[in-house]
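Good morning C.,

I know you're traveling, so I'll keep this short. The sequence:
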Amino acid sequence: MKTKSVLLIIVTVFFTTVFSNKNFAQESIDQKAKMLDLKLQLLDSKLELLDTKIKLWESKPAELDIRLDEIDDKIKTLNFDPAGINLKFLEVDAKIQELKEVNIPVIMPAPVIQEQEIEYFKDYKSAIMLNPVSLFEGTFHLSYERLLTDKFSVSISALATYATEQGMSQYFFSNQRFEYLSSFSNSYEIYQGESIAGTGIVLQGKNYLMANYKTRNKAPLGLYAAPQLMYRRVWITGEAMEYDIDEDEWVEKEIKQQLNICSAGVLIGTKIPVMKVLIVDIFVGGNIRLSKYDDESGLTKYKKWYNIDYSGVFPTAGIGIGILK
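The tokens, ready to paste straight into the viewer:
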């Protein structure tokens, strides 16, 4: 029994192995067939692409021929006659030769030259100026300036003053506060002024700041800075009521005061040319002014800045008009 069982097992294993190998071989054949089909399909695709490229290559020469035919048609439509153009050139050369043989003088038209007006600037050495603002203070202010170098000049001015309640100096005169030192009360008393008269002199040294630059406005024109010194001698007259002890009454007294004014300061201004000869001088600055009456021991005090006898720092500004020489 055991021998039969062993034989049965061996037979079973044999047949199982045989049939399984047969199935495996069958599956391997099928896979190879499928791979062969895929390769054939790829080969067909490559053949189709090659055929397409060949057709494209064959169509290019045909398109090129069409383009060349179109260009030939356009050239034929152009009206270009080289022989005719050469004839025209020959005719022109013949005309030129005839003119040379006749020897006709060639007359060239004279060129029209448009004259440009050249602006002429003269080098001036001096200037005479008048300060019109001072006229409203009753002062005639006339100055003469002379160049010493290309950018430095000296100016001297003369002042003549006469101001009253009438005329151009009316506003200036009416704003003055006149006071005198009374010998009776030994104090300052207000009186009614009648006139202000006097003379004066002003010295300036002007340094033209833009003289070294390449501008048309040479000194005495352009921007400048100037130190200034001034002296004035002024006489003030008026009337006041004073008590007379001998007569025991108030009497009218004439007041005469002599005033000395000294000032020093700095100005900055500019001179602008007008119509090549006239100039306008615009300036601003500041001064230290000291005023003293002859019959008083010290300088004036507690005066308003617009008073003629003011002592202290004083601003100044003005406009001058003059001519160049």
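Safe travels,
E.
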